[in-house]
C-alpha cells in the first residue's frame, strides 16, 4: 500500500520534472540552444515565489508573478545577449549560460543568504485527502491537477496553434520560418521566455514540497537533463513520460533506500541509455 | 563477362514505410566508369549510403569483390577498398590539405594511428600516398594550407582526393561537380577521366556532358528503382529515359 | 610560437616562477594540480571536440583511491598515485563508452548526469568514502629518501609530476593518434568514412583524459590530506571545464594559464568577497562575446600584433554550430 501511495507522490514530482524539462526541450527545439541557465531560472522562480509570499501575497499570485517576472527577465537576456551567440559553437552557448547561471545563483545568495528556507503549504491546501486506505496531502493533488491543466494548455499551444507549428518547423530549419514571413527574432524571444517561465513555475510549485536552497538550480538542471536524455529533446510526449518515470522512480526509492533515491534516478537513466540508445521514443 | 567488382542483389531500403530503394540490381565491372543518374529523389544518394554502410538495407545483398559486405560497418568496407567522396564537401577544415590526404591514406590502416607515442610525420607510407594524391588532384601548391582556406574548386578536388588516397578498388563519387563554376568543371572532368584509367569509379552526377562522355555504363534510376541500364549511346536513344527526362537533360548540357 | 619545445619551456618557467611569485606554496601546488586536470579536459574538448562535464568523476575517484590506499595500506605514494590514475582511466573508459552512445548536446547532458550519479554514489556509500565528511587524515608518505611533509617539498614533487604529464600529453597530441583526434574533432563523420573506428579513438582519448585527471585528483588529496565529497561534485566538473575554456582550447599551455588564472584569482577574490563567482559568471559571458580563444588566444593575438605591427586576420576558431536535429 505504501508503494501505491509513493507512486501517486511520484506522479506529483514527475509532473514538476515534466514542466522543468519541457521548457528546456522547446527552447532547444526552436533555437538549437542548450540552456545551462535553465536550473537557475527554476531557482529564481522558487526564491521570487518565496519573497512574494513573505510580503503577504497570496500563493496563487506568488507563483504566477514569479513565473512572469522570470519570463520577462529571460526575454531581456535572450534579446540582449543570447541572440548574439546563436551562430557560435555549442561550447560557447554552454559557457555563456553557465556564466548566467552563476550570476543568478550568486545574486540569490546576496539577496536571500546562503542558508535555505522552508515554505509552508498554502493554507487552502493544507489538508489531506483519504483516497481509499491511504492519506494523501491536498497540495500534491493540487500540483498534479495544476500541472496537468498546464500540460494541456502547452499541448494545445504546441500542437494546435500557429506558434506551435512554427516551433515545430523550427526544429527542421529556421530559414524556412523566415521564408514564411514570421519575425523569427520575436518568436525566439517568446519561446525562450516561455521555457524560462515554465522552469520558474516548476520552482515555485516545488518550494512547499522541497523547501529552498541556493543550490537547487544545479540539481534541477541535472534532473531536466536526465528527463530529456530519456525522453528526447523537442518532444512533448517524451518529456511527459520521462518526467513521470523519473518522479516515480525517485519516490519509490525514497521508501526503499532513502539515501539512494537520487542515485536511482541516474541509474535508471543509464539503463535507458544502454537498452534504448536512442531514448524512449527513439527520436533522439 | 568479367567478374563484377560490386554487385547488389534485390537491394531495398525502407524508411518507415516509404520504399526509398527497391529491388536494385546494380553490377559494376572492374576498371570502368559507371554512372548513376536520375531526377532528385530517385534514390541515388540512398544507394550510395547503403553501399558505403551509412544506412542499413532492409532487404537484399551487397557483394564486393565476391564477398558479402551487407552487414559490415562503414569503416570495415573502407578497409576492403571501398571509398567515397561526399556531395557536400566534408573535410577536416582546420587541417592542411596534405594532412587531410595523409589521414585518408591512414584510414586503410587505422590501428597504426592508435600509436600515441609515434609522431604523425613518421607515417612514411601514408605521407607518400598523400603527396602522390596531391599531384593527381593538382593541389601540390596549396598542400600546407588549411582545408577551410582553399577555394571551392580546390576543396572539391581535395574531396575527390580523399577518396583516392585510401587506395580503393572502387571509388564512389557523389556529385563531384556540385556547386562548381564553369572554370573548375574542366579540371574535375579531367580528374575523373584520369581516375577511370586505373580505378573503378561509380559516379553520381547531374552534369550530363560528363556522364555521357566519360562513362562506360550508365544506370538510370527513378523512384527508387532502376529504370534502365546501358552504354551512354543506348541511354541517349532510350524512349523510357527520354520520357522520364523530357529529353532535355540527356541530349546536352545541364538540366 | 607553436613549437612543442617552446611550450614545454614555458611550462618549466611557470613551475619555477610560481613559488617565487606566490607566497603560499600550497596554492602553487594547487595551480599545477589543476593544470594537469585541465590539460586532461582539454584533450577531450580542444583536441577531440568532446565537451565532458564528467571530469569531476575522474578527479574525485582519484582522490578517493589515493586516500583509501594510503589509509589502509603502507604502499608508497607513487604507487597510490599510479592507482588513482589507473582507476581514473578505467572508469573513463566506462563513462566515455556510455556517453558517446549519444552525440552532440545529448553527450554533454549525459556526462553531466553521470557526474551527478557518481556524486550521489560517493554520498550514499559513506562507509567507504566518508560521505559528507570525506576521507579524513590521509597521510603523506615520502618518496624514497625525500620527505614531502612540507609545502615546498610537496610543491617540488608536484612540479616534477606536472612537467612529466605535460611532456607526455604534448607527445600524445602530436602523435598519429593525436592528429587523428583533431580529424575527429573537425569532422567525425568523415573520419568514420575514411576508415577510422571513431568510437574507439574517442574512448582511448577518454581513457587518457581520465587517467590524467585521476592522477590530479590523487595529488590533490595528498596535498590537502583529505578526499572531500566536493572533489567529485558538479562544481568541480564545472570549474575544470571553465578553466579549460578560459585558458583556451586546443592548446596545452593554455590549460596551464587557465588553471593558474582561475585558482589564483579565486583564492584572492574569495578572501575579499565571498560572492566573487558573480564576477566569474560575468567573465564567462564576456569571454563568449569577446575572447573566444581564451587567454592563450589573447597572447597569440598580442604577439602577432607586435610582430606584424598590426592586427592580423586570424583564422577564426568560431564555427557555425552544426545544427543538432532532435
Index terms:
A: 284 residues; mainly alpha; two-stranded antiparallel sheet; 11 helices; 3% strand; B: 255 residues; alpha/beta; Rossmann fold; 6-stranded mixed beta sheet; 10 helices
Layout of helices and strands:
The complex is a heterotrimer of chains A (about 280), B (about 260) and C (about 325).
Chain A: H1 2-31, H2 38-54, H3 59-80, H4 90-112, E1 128-131, E2 134-137, H5 138-160, H6 162-170, H7 174-179, H8 184-210, H9 216-231, H10 236-256, H11 261-275
Antiparallel strand pairs in A: 1-2
Chain B: E1 6-15, E2 18-24, E3 27-28, E4 33-37, H1 44-52, E5 59-64, E6 67-68, H2 74-80, E7 82-85, H3 97-106, H4 124-136, H5 152-165, E8 170-174, H6 182-198, E9 200-204, H7 208-214, E10 217-222, E11 225-230, H8 232-237, H9 239-245, H10 248-251
Parallel strand pairs in B: 4-9, 4-10, 7-8, 8-9
Antiparallel strand pairs in B: 1-2, 1-3, 1-5, 5-6, 10-11
Helix pairs in contact in B: 3-4, 3-5, 4-5, 5-6
Chain C: H1 4-21, H2 25-48, H3 55-72, H4 77-99, H5 104-124, H6 126-129, H7 151-174, H8 176-186, H9 188-193, H10 198-224, H11 234-247, H12 252-272, H13 277-290, H14 294-308
Oligomer: heterotrimer
* Shape type of chain A: globular
The computed structural class of chain B is: alpha/beta
Give me the side-by-side strand order of the main sheet of chain A. Answer: 1-2
Strand residue content of chain A = under 5%
Q: Could you state the order of secondary-structure elements of chain B as H and E? A: EEEEHEEHEHHHEHEHEEHHH
Order of helices and strands of chain A: HHHHEEHHHHHHH
- Gyration radius of chain A, to the nearest Å? 19 Å
| Straight-line N-to-C gap of chain A | 37 Å
What is this entry, summarized?
The complex is a heterotrimer of chains A (284), B (255) and C (326). By secondary structure, chain B is of the alpha/beta class.
Report on this structure.
Chain A is mainly α and 284 residues long. Chain A has one domain (15-215). Chain A is 74% helix and 3% strand. Chain A is built from eleven helices and two strands; from the N terminus they run ααααββααααααα. Chain A has helices spanning 2-31, 38-54, 59-80, 90-112, 138-160, 162-170, 174-179, 184-210, 216-231, 236-256, 261-275; strands at 128-131, 134-137. Chain A has a two-stranded antiparallel sheet with strand order 1-2. In chain A, a hairpin with a 2-residue loop joins β1 (128-131) and β2 (134-137). In chain A, α1 packs parallel to α5 and α2 (38-54) crosses α9. The model of chain A has no long low-confidence stretch (mean pLDDT 87). In chain B, the strands form two sheets. A six-stranded mixed beta sheet of chain B has the order 7-8-9-4-10-11, with helices on both faces. In chain B, strands 1, 2, 3, 5 and 6 form a five-stranded antiparallel beta sheet that branches. In chain B, a hairpin with a 2-residue loop joins β1 (6-15) and β2 (18-24). Chain B has ten helices and eleven strands. With 326 residues, chain C is an all-alpha fold. Chain C has a single domain, classed as ABC transporter involved in vitamin B12 uptake, BtuC, CATH 1.10.3470. In chain C, 74% of the residues lie in helices and 0% in strands. Chain C starts with a helix and ends in an 18-residue tail after the last helix. The chains are: A mainly alpha (284), B alpha/beta (255), C mainly alpha (326). Chain B binds chain C through residues 52, 54, 74-75, 78-79, 83-84, 86, 90-95, 99, 103-104, 106-108, 110, 112-120, 122-123, 146, 148-149, 162, 166, and chain C through 171-172, 174-180, 182-183, 186-187, 189-197, 200-201, 204, 208, 315, 319.
